Amino acid sequence: MTLAQAAKHAIELGGIYDGHEAPADVHKLTKASVAALAGQGLVVAAKDNYPRDGSTYSYVASFAEVEVDVETGKYYIVDFLASGDVGTVIHPRALGGQMLGRSTLGMGHALGQKWVFDPRYGEMLSKRFYQSKPPTILDVPVDMQWTALDIPDPETPVGARGVGEPPVGGGCASVLNALSDALGDEIFQRAPVNADTILTSLEAGRPMQHPLMAHI
After folding, report:
1. Cα 51 to the center of its chain, rounded Å
2. What are the structural domains of the chain?
3. Cβ-proximal residues to 89 (8 Å cutoff; 6+ apart), any chain
């Protein structure tokens, strides 16, 4: 059955299937959301009351290939793959958008997004996009791919798990690891990695920035 067929059938059945009736144990905001969608298709709202042995997490393994111009310090991400262990894949296009979209956020942390605080007063100094540059379509590789194991999780109602944060860490770490592999281990010790960081460190033969420190 396609999603369109399921939605049509839900409207015909009504009640708990098309959103006119919501479960009694869900949050009042969930009930309001269900009511707003009533009659438009298959509407499902449920509270997860399944027994659970421990915490359930999703995992993403990411792989990146970079090219670095050692004369200018400019580098490009030329290839990227994210592979997720997220349980059952319910909506492939939505999952792919999550995987690659959040991976792009992680790439931004490696490429140019950073927080800069005044060390004395704790005031945020990087308040503009030109000071903390988010990634654009020109920063991500043309060839971005994703895949998923599609193994059902036995402790969730439909076998699926959420995937929001895991691709962020994978996107950032895969780019940083690829840069370290290309340049050597003694070029940078913090992110983001800018062209000036690469050039000054290559010239000096050692990292020219202090390691990342906590703001206390």
Report:
1. 28
2. 3-37 (no CATH), 59-204 (3.30.365.10)
3. 95, 148, 150, 160
How far is C-alpha 159 from the chain's CA centre? 21
pTM for the whole thing? Answer: 0.76
Q: Are 83 and 147 in contact, with CB atoms under 8 Å apart? A: yes
pLDDT, tens digit, 9 for 90 and up, residues 119-175 = 888 888 888 887 788 899 999 998 899 999 999 998 887 889 989 899 999 999 999
- Residue 21 one-letter amino acid: E
Give me the pLDDT at residue 149, please.
96
Secondary structure of the chain in HEC code, one letter for each residue:
CCHHHHHHHHHHHCCCCCCCCCCCCCCHHHHHHHHHHCCCCCCCCCCCCCCCCCCCCCEEEEEEEEEECCCCCCEEEEEEEEEEECECCCCHHHHHHHHHHHHHHHHHHHHCCCCCECCCCCCECCCCCCCCCCCCCCCCCCCEEEEECCCCCCCCCCCECCCCCHHHHHHHHHHHHHHHHHHCCCCCCCCCCCHHHHHHHHHHCCCCCCCCCCCC
Banded pLDDT at 115 (limits 50, 70, 90): confident
